[in-house]
Design brief:
The chain is an alpha/beta fold. The chain contains ten helices and eight strands. The protein has an eight-stranded parallel barrel, surrounded by six helices. Helix 4 runs parallel beside helix 6. The radius of gyration is 19 Å and the shape is globular.
Length: 370
């Protein structure tokens, strides 16, 4: 949804980090908890207000003709642009999800007026002016009332747009305490332990609330990496934002979905994100096997793990597939089948710009065969 550090075109187009991307799609109608049983196909795409309606209609038709059912559109949280694009996509037979960068808010003109809204590292440095990994990592605190309300206000602005299927959260987590293994050489890093410059959030609001609840200061912990209360505090801070966003979305008769890390235990370890415990309609785990130096069958493994962790819940899984990480259309077909055969209700591709005519032909053929 998302929510890459290596993909230049993605950075230029959406200003979104390769690390946390996001996303995927789903085909449920508003406020419905059951799907029609079909395996669905989605794609993430970033909007450009300068493009004409004719250009967008052509793009959406290309997706539809290639077997795509839904588009997750990043409009930089601009509800007016989203409202312009929704009817164009629906006319071509596509469902639309409003993709939003949630806790990571690069170049947010409102947030930038409030330096105290930003997350603070264990070293005491704020994301406002000391950003981990890349300059567009500008993370807001999920605990501080003002920053979380700002994010929830953006969610509501998108939820009000007529005709969308869901608000799709991306970067709904903390900054990466551990990078995907294939990215470490890019930053000349070894992350065998939790490093303080990548460990968030130690702002006054987080520390004060934690002290009130647990009667201890995390800054004084002998080893915060094994302080389960401190870790769980941060998991719950993210969950609280998601759960409030869920209420807002459903109030406006739309779903809440999210781009998440591959499976809950991994997300917990890498980015303080435990998505199997959220109130949410569908998740789009970004199972980008190449990020982790894994083989293609890892798509099936991670999908199966996420489905198992959600057992007994209504939440559905859509597997996110990273197109540049595939070597051929044969691998594209295999990735789709790995997701379907391990319990996903659909797949979503990152991203629209990466889909070739050959890819779309393959998607259409696989869809017809299911």
């Amino acid at each position: 949804m998302v929510q890459s550090l290596q993909n230049k075109s993605f950075r230029q187009l959406s200003k979104i980090a390769f690390l946390a991307l996001a996303l995927s799609l789903f085909s449920c109608g508003k406020q419905e908890t059951k799907t029609d049983g079909k395996f669905t196909f989605g794609v993430w795409t970033t909007a450009d207000a300068k493009k004409s309606n004719e250009e967008y209609s052509k793009e959406f038709k290309k997706y539809k003709d290639g077997g795509i059912d839904e588009v997750l559109i990043n409009t930089q949280t601009d509800p007016k642009l989203l409202a312009r694009l929704v009817p164009l996509a629906k006319k071509e037979g596509l469902k639309v999800h409003a993709w939003i960068m949630a806790m990571n808010r690069p170049n947010d003109s409102v947030a930038l007026q409030h330096p105290d809204w930003y997350q603070v590292s264990k070293e005491g440095k704020s994301c406002f002016d000391n950003r981990p990994y890349v300059d567009y990592y500008q993370w807001l605190c999920p605990t501080k009332k003002e920053s979380r309300n700002h994010v929830l206000g953006l969610v509501e602005g998108l939820a009000k747009v007529e005709g969308i299927e869901s608000v799709h959260l991306d970067y709904i987590r903390f900054p990466d305490i551990f990078l995907p293994i294939s990215l470490l050489p890019k930053y000349n890093l070894v992350q065998d332990t939790e490093l303080p410059q990548f460990d968030f959030c130690y702002c006054d609001a987080c520390v004060s609330k934690f002290e009130k609840e647990h009667h201890k200061n995390p800054k004084n912990s002998h080893n915060t990496s094994i302080d389960m209360e401190w870790k769980n505090f941060r998991l719950n801070a993210v969950k609280a934002v998601v759960d409030d966003a869920y209420k807002i979305a459903h109030k406006h008769n739309v779903k809440l979905t999210a781009a998440v890390f591959p499976y809950p235990e991994m997300a917990d370890h890498m980015v303080r994100q435990r998505w199997d415990k959220w109130n949410i309609d569908e998740v789009y785990p970004m199972i980008y096997h190449s990020f982790y130096d894994e083989e293609l069958d890892w798509v099936g493994y991670a999908t199966k793990q996420g489905v198992a962790d959600l057992q007994g819940k209504e939440t559905k899984v859509n597997t996110g597939i990273y197109i540049p990480g595939l070597k051929s259309d044969a691998e594209l077909k295999e990735a789709i089948l790995q997701a379907k055969n391990n319990g996903a209700k659909g797949v979503s591709f990152f991203d629209g710009n990466a889909l070739s005519d050959s890819n779309l032909k393959t998607i259409k053929a696989v869809k017809a065969s299911l």
